[in-house]
């Protein structure tokens, strides 16, 4: 198998260089990508570490060259293509993938004690107390899964704030682009920049779209993107002293490729909030809405009871809906007072009547079944 793949890669690379020298960009790109695919497959069957490094370097050269041919006119040979991203590509990617430091604290995240503890052990403690973890391995990947709107993104942002880490907040739409080789380049550059700006947290939302389970029928682009993502995550774990954490989030964990799942040291389910957590979410949301004043007849315990099956995101929207009712009255009736009336119980009842839970029982069941079948770590 290894010999066959090597010969296929060599043949594709030879054709690519030939078409490249002749100025036939389209065919050159096609064969560079074929050579890349064969070398990535070859790495899986190679045990020799030096050979793996050699194949990987060549594969990166080929994907870099295909990107160059697609994005601008160049005349240098493939042998001169550096494995590192040049500044032009780096800046082009950073224009769409911008590291940010969110302003969300643990107290802004209601409930989720198990998830908080796992993330604190995996991310925050090693970064806040590096002397205690010097030379020791740490968790490098955590997968957050569960129904949408339950706090996966919020808890990732809070973790970045707590440890003052550079936070990369990306979804599949930020990385999957139509140009040949561009998606792989963005993933590669993402991990390079994360390493330069560590401590870093890479939050990959909708990670199932990037690492969809392989069936043999997926496109070459999907395969290359997954391979680049796996290489990036392997690079994160290569050095003990690197402080880079990959947080993946998904509503459909059963769609993720098994090789990508193995890169996540921990899998944590973020469930629908229980009644106690829902009350806390109401409190936090109202606290963060300074112009929302409650009437004395509003009972948060009652509201928490009435919102069974609602997500945290649903509850925030209910508070917004209720707040807009007196606003609309104020404008419609042209009331002289500057401040609208307080939000009362009937406003929340009206908001609940118009807004139902955004999560279906089937989504909840599928996530629970997957958690029971594969276990949470």
List the defining traits of the structure above:
56% helix; Helicase, Ruva Protein, domain 3; Methane Monooxygenase Hydroxylase, Chain G, domain 1; alpha/beta; 5-stranded parallel sheet; 3 domains; Rossmann fold; 377 residues
What would you note in describing this structure?
This protein is α/β, with parallel strands linked by helices and 377 residues long. It folds into 3 domains: 2-83, Phosphotransferase system, lactose/cellobiose-type IIA subunit (Methane Monooxygenase Hydroxylase, Chain G, domain 1, Up-down Bundle); 106-271 and 368-374, P-loop containing nucleotide triphosphate hydrolases (Rossmann fold), CATH 3.40.50; 275-358, Helicase, Ruva Protein, domain 3 (Orthogonal Bundle). It has 17 helices and 5 strands. The chain has helices at residues 2-22, 25-44, 49-71, 87-94, 113-128, 130-133, 152-162, 172-175, 182-196, 207-210, 220-236, 258-262, 275-287, 300-306, 312-332, 345-354, 361-374; strands spanning 141-145, 166-170, 200-205, 244-250, 266-269. The chain has a 5-stranded parallel beta sheet, sandwiched between helices. The chain is elongated, with a radius of gyration of 25 Å. Mean pLDDT is 79; it is low at 73-85.
């Amino acid at each position: 198998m290894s010999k066959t793949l090597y010969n296929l890669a060599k043949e594709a690379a030879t054709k690519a260089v030939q078409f490249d020298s002749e100025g036939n960009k389209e065919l050159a790109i096609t064969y560079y990508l074929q050579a890349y695919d064969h070398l990535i497959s070859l790495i899986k069957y190679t045990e020799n570490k030096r050979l793996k490094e050699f194949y990987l370097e060549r594969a990166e050269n080929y994907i870099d060259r295909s990107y160059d041919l697609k994005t601008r006119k160049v005349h240098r040979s493939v042998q001169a293509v550096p494995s590192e991203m040049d500044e032009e590509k780096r800046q082009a990617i950073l224009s769409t993938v911008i590291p940010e430091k969110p302003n969300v604290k643990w107290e802004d995240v209601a409930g989720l004690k198990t998830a908080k503890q796992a993330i604190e052990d995996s991310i925050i403690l090693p970064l806040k107390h590096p002397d205690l973890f010097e030379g020791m391995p740490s968790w490098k990947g955590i997968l957050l899964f569960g129904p949408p709107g339950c706090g996966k993104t919020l808890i990732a942002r809070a973790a970045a704030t707590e440890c003052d880490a550079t936070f990369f907040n990306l979804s599949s739409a930020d990385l999957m682009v139509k140009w040949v080789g561009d998606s792989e380049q963005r993933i590669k550059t993402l991990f390079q920049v994360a390493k330069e700006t560590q401590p870093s947290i890479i939050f990959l939302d909708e990670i199932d779209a990037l690492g969809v389970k392989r069936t043999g029928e997926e496109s070459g682009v999907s395969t290359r993107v997954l391979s680049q993502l796996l290489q990036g995550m392997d690079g994160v774990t290569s050095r003990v002293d690197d402080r880079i954490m990959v947080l993946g989030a998904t509503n459909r964990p059963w769609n993720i490729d098994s090789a990508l799942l193995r890169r996540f040291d921990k899998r944590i389910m973020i469930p629908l909030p229980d009644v106690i957590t829902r009350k806390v979410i109401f409190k936090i949301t109202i606290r963060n809405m300074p112009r929302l004043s409650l009437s004395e007849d509003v009972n948060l315990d009652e509201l928490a009871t009435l919102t069974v099956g609602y997500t945290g995101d649903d509850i925030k929207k209910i508070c917004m809906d209720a707040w807009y009712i007196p606003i609309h009255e104020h404008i419609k009736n042209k009331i002289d007072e500057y401040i609208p009336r307080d939000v009362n119980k009937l406003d929340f009842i009206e908001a609940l009547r118009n807004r139902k839970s955004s999560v279906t029982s089937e989504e909840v069941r599928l996530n629970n079944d997957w958690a029971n079948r594969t276990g949470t770590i």
